[in-house]
Write a structure and sequence with these properties.
Isopropylmalate Dehydrogenase; 2 domains; 10-stranded mixed beta sheet; two-stranded antiparallel ribbon; about 40% helix; binds nicotinamide-adenine-dinucleotide
């Protein structure tokens, strides 16, 4: 199998955190071929294009893409097509990445970072699988028009929620397979009591379930899921849902952990090609200071090893190294507490390398 990784450090803290992730990959010595390219603001500065052709070619040829973050205030006033985030949207579109995987893990040592009581949330480990390319966000027709309603001309806003059977099937398969790699519990989230689209979602989940007899499938209405996430989040293993519900629930779940510098993410296509990136942004406020937390990016490497390259053992090795450095008391500023050792980006990378 070819093992090509396209490395896109991006902007802000991107290059700093990516350097540590790349060191971890190199230390694992798994024979990856890595090539680095420009994306986002850095690419705009060099080429006037947030997603230059050279980067597009590398992205196309790679098996996986590892991204730091893009964006920053110096590019905010550019025309829309030159904004850094256009680069990211360009990759997502080019590759048809329909499955977004966002783990929310709260390591016992960081339980105080959550706004929930430690006894409710310590040890949390859930994975939210969100459909990324369909649903009401992309459905046609959509718009704002003037219409005659109740004898009066007035503005009228409308969007269309729809999902085809094949779109639902492929995201549910990703979720069943992810559950198989974890604690084998899958909760499918819908609103079937009101929305036909999600009745179809539930029907298809039930139809697929016999193919995954080792996975326990349950269903939950989205309003209840939002409540259960703050009431008793540890009841969940993998949750799967559509684009709009997933947008909201994945942010809610991420915030349960209270530490943005710790959260990785993956976006996958049907052949397990993926874009792996930390859930946070480019943190311009701390860029260049060597204090950013590289762990979300290092954990994104672990996700890449697991989901694109099926190297479970190596993925667990990286995750265990991160657990070990937290247990040893090393903390970057964002997760620092009295009694722990404050370290910078490079030292955190060193600690992970030592723990490997
Ligand atoms: P942000 O996530 O960059 O920062 C929010 C806060 O969290 C800041 O105080 C920052 O210092 C802190 N933070 C974030 N990551 C950290 C880390 N690894 N270690 C320590 N502290 C960390 O969000 P923002 O400030 O809203 O956005 C900044 C820029 O990032 C904007 O230009 C935005 O468009 C962009 N952005 C990019 C992505 C992406 O590339 N996927 C995602 C979100 C935001």
């Amino acid at each position: 199998m070819s093992k090509k990784i396209c490395v896109l450090p991006g902007d802000g803290i991107g290059p700093e955190i990516m350097a540590e992730a790349v060191r971890v990959l190199q230390a694992l010595d798994l024979g990856f071929e890595m090539e680095t390219a420009l994306l986002g603001g850095a690419a705009v500065d060099a080429t006037s294009n947030p997603y230059p052709e050279a980067t597009q070619k590398l992205v196309q040829a790679a098996d996986a893409i590892l991204l730091g973050a893009v964006g920053g205030p110096q590019w905010d006033s550019l025309p829309r097509e030159q904004r850094p985030e256009r680069g990211l949207l360009g990759i997502r579109k080019q590759l048809g990445l329909f499955a977004n995987l966002r783990p929310a893990i709260l390591y016992p040592e960081l339980a105080n970072a959550s706004s929930l009581k430690p006894e409710v949330v310590a040890g949390l480990d859930i994975l939210i699988v969100r459909e990324l390319t369909g649903d009401i966000y992309f459905g046609q027709p959509r718009g704002i028009e003037v219409r005659e309603i109740d004898g009066q001309k007035q503005r009228f806003g409308f969007n269309t929620m729809h999902y085809s059977e094949s779109e639902i099937r492929r995201i549910l398969r990703v979720a069943f397979e992810a559950a198989r790699k974890r604690n084998k519990k899958l909760c499918s989230v819908d609103k079937m009591n009101v929305l036909e689209t999600t009745q179809l979602w539930r029907d298809i989940a039930n139809e697929l379930a016999p193919e995954y007899p080792d996975v326990e499938l349950t269903h939950m209405l989205v309003d209840n899921a939002a409540m259960q996430l703050v009431r008793n989040p540890r009841q969940f293993d993998v949750m799967v849902t559509g684009n709009m519900f997933g947008d909201i629930l994945s942010d809610e779940a991420a915030m349960l952990t209270g530490s943005i510098g710790m959260l990785p993410s993956a976006s996958l296509d049907a052949k397990h090609k993926g874009l792996y990136e930390p859930s946070h942004g480019s943190a311009p406020d701390i860029a260049g200071k060597g204090v950013a937390n590289p762990l979300a990016t290092i954990l994104s490497v672990a996700m890449m090893l697991r989901y694109t390259f099926a190297l479970e053992e190596a993925a667990v090795k990286v995750e265990n190294a991160v657990k070990k450095v937290l247990a040893q008391g090393y903390r970057t500023g964002d997760i620092h507490e009295p009694g722990t050792t404050r370290v910078g980006t490079r030292q955190m990378g060193d600690a992970v390398l030592a723990a490997l």
